[in-house]
Amino acid sequence: MSQHVFLSHRDSQRLFDALDRAGYQAQAPQPKDGALVFSPIRQASDLPWGQHDTQRPGHYRLSQDDSPRAFAWANGPQALKPQLFAPSEPLWQVARDADGKLRFQACAPKPQKRALIGVRPCDLAALAIHDAHFLGGERDGHYAARREGLLLVAVNCSHPAQTCFCVSTGDGPAAKEDSGYDLLLDELDDGFVIRAGSGAGEQLLAGLALEAATPGQLASAKGQQHQATQGQLRHLPDNMASALPNQMTHPQWDKVAERCLACGNCTAVCPTCFCHSEREQPALDGASSEHLREWDSCFSSGHSYLHGHLVRESGAQRYRQWLMHKLAWWPEQFGRIGCVGCGRCISWCPVGIDISAEAHLLCQGGEA
Ligand code: SF4
Ligand code: SF4
């Protein structure tokens, strides 16, 4: 493990200058349309200083005060998913040449080196799941191209939202040693305790020549990690692994379907969801076409369409597919549940459906 060093807030531009010198485009969460979303940033002064989020089921609001911190908030609607798995992208194009023949061309993204600042421990856990999915078996070239040259500057959470439950999934609020960050920050009122988790991170820190963090700063960082752990209100049921797989006919599926709008917001904001569909987008003149890959959702009707038949016609079936795949079936496929406890699906569900509460209702008395 690298040494912990300290970067004061007033010197934080030095980190941005070092990233710039190393050829990275820095991106950090910025307030946009009332939420924090990753955007390019050149100056430390543009970090989201003094921003706070208030989240509860069906509710997300940002507010600003004179807090000296840049990361006194939990998370925005995006994790790393859109950075690597684009919401919509062409896989190939076809056009007619002068002789009227069709010419096909594969599309390959050519992203520049990016440093993402403000990545949360739950985001790192979700990224590991996506790495296993997109790179583990048949390698997805589009994901791989974006994954290369990505530098992750993670921040341990000191202000979990009311909707967070990463303690219960084991993914936060502090990042694990082997979770893949390049740099890891604990923010205090006057600066950042930093350590490196990779060679690229070590190199950046060496270039900054910072003083070692003091025992007092290390104790403060540990103390706020402990507080963030204690502050979480939600958790998944302890008996979930044994009880949930037996609940395929539980009456709760119909009850949740009475509220669920099948809008797919939960799957769009979920950092681990990776379902997609593909379609053609022909140009209006008929001379060319693009073959697009787009995010899809267990809640869309087309997602379960199979040869003239909808496998999951009702909202209850679609919600069951989503929750059961994540919480009951993923361990067999991926060696862990498909939820990292970020709480986004709870905050961004327009009717405030809470996956942790649903899991408790389904598992109550449930070891059949
Ligand atoms: S659970 Fe909520 S966010 Fe998900 S599809 Fe239903 S209404 Fe939409
Ligand atoms: S299911 Fe909900 S809480 Fe779990 S990772 Fe997805 S968005 Fe986050």
Write the layout of secondary structure elements.
Blueprint: E1 5-8, H1 13-21, E2 25-32, E3 35-40, E4 51-56, E5 59-64, H2 81-84, E6 88-96, E7 102-106, E8 114-119, H3 121-136, H4 141-147, E9 150-155, H5 166-169, E10 183-188, E11 191-196, H6 199-208, H7 215-230, H8 240-243, H9 252-259, H10 265-269, E12 276-282, E13 288-295, H11 315-334, H12 344-347, H13 355-363
Parallel strand pairs: 2-8, 8-9, 9-10
Antiparallel strand pairs: 1-11, 2-3, 4-5, 6-7, 6-13, 10-11, 12-13
Helix pairs in contact: 9-11
This protein binds iron/sulfur cluster (2 copies).
List keywords for this structure.
368 residues, alpha+beta, 2 domains, seven-stranded mixed β-sheet, four-stranded antiparallel β-sheet, 13 helices, 32% helix, binds iron/sulfur cluster
